[in-house]
User: Fold these one by one.
Assistant:
Number 1:
Amino acid sequence: EIVLTQSPGTLSLSPGERATLSCRASQSVTSSYLAWYQQKPGQAPRLLIHGASSRATGIPDRFSGSGSGTDFTLTISRLEPEDFAVYYCQQYANARTFGQGTKVEI
Amino acid sequence: EVQLLESGGGLVQPGGSLRLSCAASGFIFSNYVMTWVRQAPGKGLERVSTITTSGDTYFADSVKGRFTISRDNSKNTLYLQMNNLRADDTAVYFCAKDGADWYFESWGPGTLVTVSS
């Protein structure tokens, strides 16, 4: 099983700032089969990124994904008030596992 | 527009059973892999069970032998039969539709299952 470790656990930023979230895998994620989700309190997760860098339908271009192998990054270029949430990475190269989440807070 | 709506959650005693349903619309249900994902209170996401278009199934070790997954393509509905429930099964259960690959493209709002005496 591929274990995903996200860092930091919590990111404290202000609107307008840049957010950089990390997801590290215990072994290589082949074909960049990595996705990112956003979850707000009381809501279901929402797909942001798949294939490590492809934005899902309707996702603003301030969200971008990068990386390959074992190291992946989600970047939010300029935080909007609605972006404060928990973010999860998920690999789907070998079974499907999630990271433990990064909370982006004001 | 893809819509997924879970139902069937509630309070159940340890050792009891529940059947969750997920009504799907806005896409050709029979063409997609479907999954149940759960989230314990204040915790992260855990894939519970998956069913493919051909009926092949996957279960997390934590539920193997206790949960079964099924689908009724004529009713566009996904099911999760949960037996011998334990306190650590307490969670919000989401149904999710796969994308072109094995990521979760769309999610329902979830249904809460509470296992407590």
Number 2:
Amino acid sequence: KAGVTQTPRYLIKTRGQQVTLSCSPISGHRSVSWYQQTPGQGLQFLFEYFSETQRNKGNFPGRFSGRQFSNSRSEMNVSTLELGDSALYLCASTRSSMNTEAFFGQGTRLTVV
Amino acid sequence: TQLLEQSPQFLSIQEGENLTVYCNSSSVFSSLQWYRQEPGEGPVLLVTVVTGGEVKKLKRLTFQFGDARKDSSLHITAAQPGDTGLYLCAGIISSGSARQLTFGSGTQLTVLP
């Protein structure tokens, strides 16, 4: 079966712009989590969605938001981009919010200039 | 402040050597996972340990969960160049009806031929 698909793979944006990243989970998986990975901070949890509802949120400013659609696909949005938002954004899907076997996508490499 | 501390942060060894990576926390986790991440890819789950004192083996990899469920170790026997990658531990915390992964800082392993 197809894995987790994230688009786009690479993105370059200017400070102050906004960006939307997309994640399609494995078929049948209803939970999607987002993580930010940077060399200095490692993998940091952003938020988790299950059945179109945000179940959990990490310690990130309100500029970071997300949503999940009825087909379980998810998007995350970052507004008013800052240089420090440059990172690899990873999406992981699990069958349910209680299931811990997470499957990660390849990530979206965001560079803010 | 990292909830999970991994050590060492970097490790470079020769093919055939043994190594141990440590993952420590002051928090108790319901379970703990180990992932390996290769360049340009998302993390891939290697194992989940659930019971304090549990030991799991995956070919040349041995994973141990501490008795108090606060720490874990990964031991690789006779390392091979294909073991090269970023090793991440992740503690699982239950929050209401959801479970959240908290990742360690990672250990970058390089196995030289």
